[in-house]
Amino acid sequence: MSRSNRERTEQTRQALIDAGRRLFVEKGYAETATPEIVMAAGVTRGALYHHFEDKKALFRAVTECEARAVAAAIEARSASYDAPRAMLIAGASAYFDAMRAEGRTRLLLIEAPAVLGPLASAAIDAENAEATLRAGLAAMLPEAGAMLEPLTSLLSAAFDRAAIAIESGAERQYYEQTIAVLLDGLAEQLRR
């Protein structure tokens, strides 16, 4: 495939992902029809099915893009810190900032588990934001050992619940303070 064909193919795929995201945010997965997606993307129905098996596959691609964007934001913010605790605190703040993108909390935390299933949704998270959390916890809490995976899973769920609460109007600063207290408490307990 020539470079221009590859570029056109990628542009078409990205147009479908962008249109899908807009409509999934605006209407929700269930209320979004494939004809609306292709019209919004300015492509044919055949182009949709060339790139994605079905609407669910497109939704998965949208979810993966959103999850990568969140992970990239966390990594970018936390990379400027050397101390593991500071990295985790900066990463937490970056996570909450990233989740403020319009519709992102709904897409990743409400629709994705419902549409893709909890295991597929968790796998996407495990490759993205949860992976950065795991690395940060491993650096801050080297004593965690076999508890690293359960700690990562539990804290990831706490971050998700916090993002939903913040999206609903809860005070973000209290969640960020609580995360710091939680991390410090874990560190103290594991060092005993």
From TrEMBL:
<dbReference type="GO" id="GO:0003700">
    <property type="term" value="F:DNA-binding transcription factor activity"/>
</dbReference>
<feature type="DNA-binding region" description="H-T-H motif">
    <location>
        <begin position="33"/>
        <end position="52"/>
    </location>
</feature>
<dbReference type="Pfam" id="PF00440">
    <property type="entry name" value="TetR_N"/>
</dbReference>
<keyword id="KW-0238">DNA-binding</keyword>
<keyword id="KW-0805">Transcription regulation</keyword>
<keyword id="KW-0804">Transcription</keyword>
<dbReference type="GO" id="GO:0000976">
    <property type="term" value="F:transcription cis-regulatory region binding"/>
</dbReference>
<dbReference type="InterPro" id="IPR050109">
    <property type="entry name" value="HTH-type_TetR-like_transc_reg"/>
</dbReference>
<dbReference type="InterPro" id="IPR001647">
    <property type="entry name" value="HTH_TetR"/>
</dbReference>
<feature type="domain" description="HTH tetR-type">
    <location>
        <begin position="10"/>
        <end position="70"/>
    </location>
</feature>
<dbReference type="InterPro" id="IPR009057">
    <property type="entry name" value="Homeodomain-like_sf"/>
</dbReference>
<protein>
    <submittedName>
        <fullName>AcrR family transcriptional regulator</fullName>
    </submittedName>
</protein>
